[in-house]
Amino acid sequence: MTIRYATALLLLIALGSAGATELVYVPKNPSFGGNPLNGTTFINEAQLQNKHDTDPSTQKSQLQQFNDNLQRVILSRLASSISGGLFDSNGKLVPGTLDTTDFSIAITSLGGNQLQITTTDKSTGQQTSFQVSQ
């Protein structure tokens, strides 16, 4: 019994002396107020975790990059010239149908300044549509 009492007494003394303190948050990342000297450590850890391999055989040459950019510019201007017929002089969409080689674009008035634009792929018959307000 005395061993039990002694153990209980030691336990109570140990618990009684345990004190609580404030929790203090100290940021580590310099982007969020942490020490700026931690920046190189964080960037090095991020670079070590980066599994992205830049395979030189998959990189495009400057000529290929130029051709890709040129193609984007031409397609953008083509889309602008095609869509020019869809708008009136005030910049509002005009109900009607526009046909291209591959697509058909139908603009339908739903009333109340609402328009539905339906694009149909002529080769597959797939349609996508959305509504806009004028």
What keywords describe this structure?
single chain, alpha+beta, 4 strands, elongated
Overview of the structural elements:
Pfam families: CsgF (PF10614). The termini are far apart. The protein has 134 residues and is α+β, with helices and mostly antiparallel strands. The longest helix has 22 residues, at 62-83. Helix content is 37%, strand content 21%. The chain has a domain at 62-134. It has a four-stranded antiparallel beta sheet, with no helix packed on it.
Compile the SSE list and pairings.
Elements: H1 2-17, H2 39-49, H3 62-83, E1 96-99, E2 103-111, E3 114-121, E4 127-133
Antiparallel strand pairs: 1-2, 2-3, 3-4
InterPro entries: T8SS_CsgF
Signal peptide: 1-20
Function: May be involved in the biogenesis of curli organelles.
| Overall number of strands | 4
- The SSE order reads HHHEEEE
> Considering DSSP H and I runs of 4 or more, what fraction of the residues is helical?
25-40%
Distance between the termini: 89 Å
Mean pLDDT: 82
Structural class: alpha+beta
What are the low-pLDDT stretches, counting only 5+ consecutive residues below 50? none
Concise account of the structure shown:
The chain has 134 residues and is of the alpha+beta class. It has helices at residues 2-17, 39-49, 62-83, and strands at 96-99, 103-111, 114-121, 127-133. It starts with a helix and ends with a strand.
